[in-house]
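Thread title: Can someone regenerate the structure for this chain?

I was given the following input by a collaborator and told the matching structure tokens would be attached. They weren't. Posting the sequence so someone can regenerate them.
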Amino acid sequence: SEGRGEMGRGKIEIKKIENPTNRQVTYSKRRNGIFKKAQELTVLCDAKVSVMMYSKTGKFHHYTSPTTTTKKILDEYQKTLGCDIWSTHYERMQENLKQLKEINSNLRRDIRQRVGKDLNDLSIDELYALEQKMDASIAIVRERKVKNLQERNRSLLLEFEARCELDSQYGVVDNEGDYNSTVAFANGVSNLYAFRLHPSHPNLHDEGGFGMNDLRLA
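Best answer:
Regenerated them for you:
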């Protein structure tokens, strides 16, 4: 008998396993064992069993007899103990729904006021606050618009430079002396023209302007 005792499994002190790896391995093994026992109770005794577990890492594991559901088990639990575990949850849901409805109502009112509606009941301070919001919104829209235009201009410039490198028909005329350059787009074809300025009057440069008759192809 002493030999058999030595060959048997030793007792394990029931306390927290400090090593995380050993703790997880023990949890997995014993969890599977509990689920196996729950399944055996279901088959052997026609019992209704529901087991739910959360691991240290927050993973959820559960087993429920095929002949029932977790909700039915909880309903039977409430009926047996004469308690209601759903009422508190329902009240929280109702309170949350009330808050969401209030937020939605405020957002709808704010949208209507921003388009000039429902302003009659606003005080001077409320109108001033609304004006400040509108100014801030306009500034944001204007900033976004300017950014989009800058990005578009950069994109067009890069595209034009790429075409200039690929198309030998393009030429660049430095804007020196009496030359000004311009780009003309027609029928999807880009061409670069250079114009020489020929003032008709000797003092035209001093007047700061040229007429159409003063432009000549260089």
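The longest strand covers residues 189-197.
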